[in-house]
Amino acid sequence: MDSTPSPSSSSPFDLVSSALGRYIPRGGAAAAAGPADARGDRGPRRPEPDAPDAGGQDQILGVVNLDRDLRITRCALAAPVFAGLDAVPGSPFVDLLPPGDVPTVTRRLQQVLETGEAHVARIQRLRRGDGSELVVSMSILPAPAPEEGLTVSVIAMARRLHLYAAETAIGTSLDIGETAQSLAESLLAWGDVAAVDLDFAVWTGEGVTERAQGRIRLRRAALVPDRAWPDGYVTPGDDLPSDASRLLAQAVRRDDAPQAIVIPDREAVERVLGSPRVMRALVPGDRSAGVACIPLVLDGSPPVVLGVAEVWRRADCPFRDSELFDLQELVARTAHHVDLARQHQREHTQVLALQRRLLPRTGGDTIEIASVYQPATPDSAGVGGDWVNSFPLPDGRTALVVGDVVGHGLGAAATMGQLSMEARALLSAGLAPDEVLEHLDETVSLLDDAESGLAAGYSALGSTCCIALYDPVSHRVALSSAGHLPPVLVSPDGHAGPLAVRPHPGLGAEFALREPFDVHTFGAPPGSLLALYTDGLVEDPAESIDEGIGRLADAVSTVHPWDALQQAARRVVAALVPGRQRDDVTLLLARMIGYRKGDTATWRLPARGDAPARARAQVSALLRQWRTRDDTRDTVQLLVSELVTNAVRFATGPVTVRLIRTGHGLLCEVGDTGNGRPRLSRGGLLDDGGRGLHIVHGLTTRWGVRWTDTGKVIWAEVAR
User: Fold this and answer.
1) C-alpha distances in angstroms, 176 versus 164, 253, 519?
2) Partners of 707 in the beta sheet?
3) What is the mean pLDDT of residues 28-48?
4) Does residue 639 contact residue 700 with C-beta atoms inside 8 Å?
5) Rounded CA gap, 470 and 670, in Å?
6) Statement: residue 262 has pLDDT above 60
7) Per residue in 643-688, pLDDT tens?
8) What is the signed CA dihedral for 213, 214, 215, 216, rounded to 10 degrees?
9) Phi first, then psi: what are they for 143, rounded to 5°?
């Protein structure tokens, strides 16, 4: 019967120790050394960490138990590879560490104690009693309740195991800084200090090309271990001095081909670097005197150098040929990961620029706008297709648009830009929100055909969009949604909640699932606050989407009328998404202001022959009350007369005249029940048709038409 304790009742120390007991052959450490003796190597020797015995009975796993004061309580380090490690019960665990690594490892141990989250598989050096060091993969595990303390498991890093583990770790992130950091941590197994310096074009994601070596610019991307460095030494994020960049570039390009070099001691380093300033920038300290420089090379014709990896070690531990070969192999295996991170960074930068270009710039006299966009973390699948926009329409209304395109990266960005621009063009042309969504729905379906969509490996089917049009005169909002989450409305009295918008399948749904887009109209009196957003703001795996929307409503309800809206938007996002997110986060806040009653006037006239004269009289009286200039008053009277005449001539039913005093002019609107589209055409000398539109065109700064449920409205703007 297996006497191994069950996981539920065993500590990590017991589990690892029992595994060691089954793995180490009977006879303990002496038996484990048998294969070496069989080969005739009978002299005393300490197993090398980079070349342990290849026999199947070699043990490279050990375990140490710590209390809350980080003192050793138990240990199982009997294998020969751990010989010389003075792990004495009762002694501090940090006594096993090189002095420069004590702060970093102590911080990690304390973090696991406080959070209970394991710290797994980090490359670390342990110090033997004779001053030599052993490279291990160290994991820190919390002890299960009710026990207290930590279990530290260590795996002695055999050469092939280390190369495999390093390559696996380096390929797990698409963030260029994290990729370089993983490479530097892996290189630390061969020295005291490891650094990765990348071409500035690689760091920023730009294309890398061959260039004159005198113009190369290197930036430090990673440096290990984490410790306090002397003044003048280059740390991550700093640019290397131009002389240092040039020297490193020349050092790794010998005979016009990239290759690794070794500078064995401090005298040689001083001779090569020359300048004291360059010495301070590159040499990490007095002990680290020798350095191996290995270029990160992209295979090609010609090969392209992405940067330089540097491994520093003491002069009394010179690099062996086998070690240099291992360093070259590791860097060669992982250089393509650096280039993948560069490409991801480039795409991330391009998409982010497009996202920010679509963000609203400002509001206007009738509405205040604030927006926040936070891209996904750089090592996620890429910047998503979230977009938000707001813009004034020519007829005085304001459009608020938010959308979420399926997918990430350039494909989603291209679709996002196309839908955003199409929505703006259609809304500016006077189409209603539901009509615009019908066009966007057709666009998504066309983009997904065999040639331009699926063949490119990207599909936008299922994208969502929400469009709201705010009328500052009636203080009402017309809203249509295609599968998007409902906006949140905060009334002037502070009550907040999501709008009851009828759900829709989204853009590009199958024909059988397509439904007409509804128009939801609601009042938004001055002081109301409307929040439009994407799912990244409210989604949380630990709660339902309704709970997330409820948290958003609570956060938005705390925004006071006198709060600066942009700061309030940032505060809401920070409250809902406090940490790193795996999806884009977008929020648009719109505070409704509207026009004052004294700045607007509306008349409803019967469609009779005297309607133009009555309209002129009403408009003239109002403009005198507004103290408008005589020439502007004459222009507006003629404009209204022509528009009303056309409405009476070509339409039926009553005619509505509305005049709005804006901050920069006067906006005239004439509505009727006709459905014909007025067009400005070039007519003959005796052709009376279209004469009114030519007059309107000559009198106004701009004019247009929008459609309503009962007909159309022709609007025209006059400067004052």
Assistant:
1) 20, 24, 46
2) 712
3) 34
4) yes
5) 19
6) yes
7) 888 888 877 778 899 998 887 788 888 888 877 666 665 544 334 4
8) 50
9) -75, 140
Do 65 and 189 contact (CB within 8 A), yes or no? Answer: no
CB atoms within 10 A of CB 512: 5
Instruction: Give the integer Cα–Cα distance in Å for 531 and 590.
Output: 7
pTM recorded for the entire structure:
0.57
Please state whether beta strands 288-298 and 261-263 pair in parallel, antiparallel, or not at all (unpaired): antiparallel
Q: What is residue 255's predicted lDDT score, i.e. its pLDDT?
A: 60
Q: What are phi and psi of 718, to 5 degrees?
A: -125, 130
Query: 339, 568 in Cβ contact below 8 A?
Result: no
> Can you tell me the mean pLDDT for 393-403?
88
CA nearest to 436, candidates 385, 480, 389, 499: 480
What is the distance of C-alpha 209 from the center of its chain? 27
pLDDT of 520 = 93
Cis link prior to 578 (omega < 30° from 0)? no
Residue 7 reports pLDDT greater than 50 = no
For residue 100, give the 3-state DSSP assignment.
helix
Residue 136 phi/psi, 5-degree rounding, is -135, 160
522: nearest Cα among 513, 530, 532, 534: 530
Q: What does the pLDDT look like over 605-640, one tens digit per residue?
A: 888 888 889 988 998 998 888 888 888 888 888 888
Predicted confidence band of residue 57 (pLDDT cuts 50, 70, 90): very low
CB 96 within 8 A of CB 62: no
Residue type, 85: L
Judged by DSSP in three states, 714 sits in strand
Cβ atoms of 94 and 86 within 8 Å: the answer is no
Task: Determine the residue type at 455.
Answer: A
Structure tokens at 151: 């279990």
Whether pLDDT at 568 is above 80: yes
- Rounded Cα–Cα distance for residues 448 and 454 (Å): 6
Phi and psi angles of residue 10, each rounded to the nearest 5 degrees, phi first: -115, 145
| 327: nearest Cα among 288, 292, 291 | 292
Which residue blocks in 25-170 are alpha helix, DSSP H? Answer: 28-32, 34-38, 102-115, 159-170
Sign of the C-alpha dihedral computed for residues 417, 420, 425 and 431 taken in this order: positive
Task: Say if residues 409 and 383 touch (Cβ distance below 8 Å).
Answer: yes
Q: How large is the average pLDDT for residues 284-311?
A: 78
**Could you write out the DSSP letters of every residue in 249-313?**
HHHTEETTEE--EEE-SHHHHHHHH--HHHHHHH---SSEEEEEEEEEEE-SSS-EEEEEEEEEE
Residue from 563, 541, 365, 580 nearest 572 by CA: 563
Report which secondary-structure segment, H or E, holds 570. helix 565-576
Contacts 24+ apart (CB under 8 A), 565-571: 565/368, 565/369, 565/370, 565/589, 565/591, 566/370, 568/370, 569/370, 569/371, 569/372, 570/372
Contact 660, 716 (CB under 8 A): no
Chain centre distance of CA 278: 36
Q: Which two tokens stand for residue 467?
A: 């469009």
For residue 660, give the amino acid letter: I
User: Apex CA 589: angle with CA 583 and CA 595, to 5°?
Assistant: 160
3 pLDDT band (50/70/90 cuts)? very low
pLDDT tens, position by position, 263-283: 888 888 878 777 788 888 888
CB crowding 37-57: b at 16 or more within 10 Å, else e: eeeeeeeeeebebbebbeeee
Predicted confidence at residue 98, as pLDDT, reads 83
- Tell me how far apart the alpha carbons of residues 551 and 544 are, in angstroms, rounded to a whole number: 11
Residue in this structure with the two tokens 């920038």, named with its chain if needed = 281
User: Nearest 5 degrees, angle CA 447-CA 453-CA 459?
Assistant: 90
163 confidence band (pLDDT: 50, 70, 90):
low
> Which of 707, 698, 712, 589 has its CA nearest to residue 646?
712
Task: For residue 289, name the pLDDT band (cuts at 50, 70, 90).
Answer: confident
- Residues 636, 438: Cα–Cα separation, whole Å: 36
What is the average pLDDT value for the chain, to the nearest integer? 77
